[in-house]
Design brief:
The protein is of the alpha+beta class and 266 residues long. The chain has a single domain, classed as Penicillin V Acylase, Chain A (4-Layer Sandwich), CATH 3.60.60. It contains four helices and 14 strands.
Length: 266
């Protein structure tokens, strides 16, 4: 997952609203949405068919966990555990608070490649920075719009600034956030750097195309997109819409039937 937009306690009637694009190499096999666990609790999300993990997981109690990878100069260390396991562990919990504790314990031995995660439900929202050489950093987030890309939360980012500006313009004009998110996630705008060179937070150069919400680059692109929201009713199931492909060309489809159907959709 390379873009997570989370509105927590800012939309009347919907305490948690999420928009997410997953960017990945085109030759890495994946399923956009499926039943990741059948019960106790039931979990929906995408599945990485190579390593078996996920980039975004949602459970029936309203816990959502998404991650973005921290880019490394030589790529992820293949001797470490797949980061895709972490959202699955989080969504196996009944609350976001519980999930944070599970994740902190899980990564405490430094066996994972670095990543950033957002974990939330109707009651709380948290950010975790997973490091390969130390304990995770955890922060409880307040009400507001939180945007996470492949960079530390809160660090300067033209991508994040653009996302915020697009959504602010839309909502200021009267468009509800839920209706504004699909347009944002389809957006190909790259805000150019003053010197024309795009960089990661650590100063290394990055592909300009990855600065757009919807990415299209040689061999690498936005592979799927998801919209999630939870209503005030604690017994209500999360609403989940998924585009199986870049949202600029693939429609969002309601995946809510998977809350009651089997893993094959039958």
């Amino acid at each position: 997952m390379c873009l997570l937009v989370v509105a927590w306690r800012t939309v009347d009637g919907w305490p948690l609203v999420v928009g997410a694009n997953r960017d990945e190499w085109l030759d890495r096999p994946a399923t956009a949405v499926t039943v990741l666990r059948e019960a106790d609790p039931r979990i929906l999300g995408g599945r990485d068919e190579r390593d078996g993990g996920t980039w975004l997981a949602v459970n029936e109690h309203g816990v959502v966990c998404g991650l973005t990878n921290r880019p490394l100069p030589d790529g992820p260390d293949p001797t470490r555990r797949s980061r895709g396991r972490l959202p699955l562990l989080a969504a196996g919990c009944r609350t976001a608070e519980e999930a944070v504790g599970v994740l902190v314990d899980e990564v405490s031995d430094g066996s994972y490649n670095p990543a950033w995660l957002l974990v939330g439900d109707r009651s709380s929202l948290h950010h975790l920075a997973v490091h390969p050489d130390g304990p995770a950093e955890v922060a409880r987030l307040g009400p507001g719009l939180h945007v996470l890309e492949n960079a530390p939360l809160g660090d300067p980012s033209r991508k994040v600034d653009h996302v915020r500006a697009v959504l602010e313009r839309a909502t200021s004009a009267g468009t509800p956030l839920w209706e504004a998110l699909p347009g944002l996630l389809r957006d190909h705008t790259v805000v150019e750097a003053p010197d024309g060179v795009h960089r990661f937070a650590d100063g290394r150069e990055r592909r300009a195309a990855t600065l757009a919400p919807c990415v299209h680059s040689d061999g690498y692109a936005t592979r799927s997109s998801a919209l999630v929201r939870m209503g005030d009713d604690p017994d209500g199931l999360p609403q989940l819409l998924v585009a199986d492909g870049p949202p600029c060309s693939e429609p969002y489809v309601d995946a809510g039937g998977l809350w009651t159907r089997g893993p094959s959709g039958a």
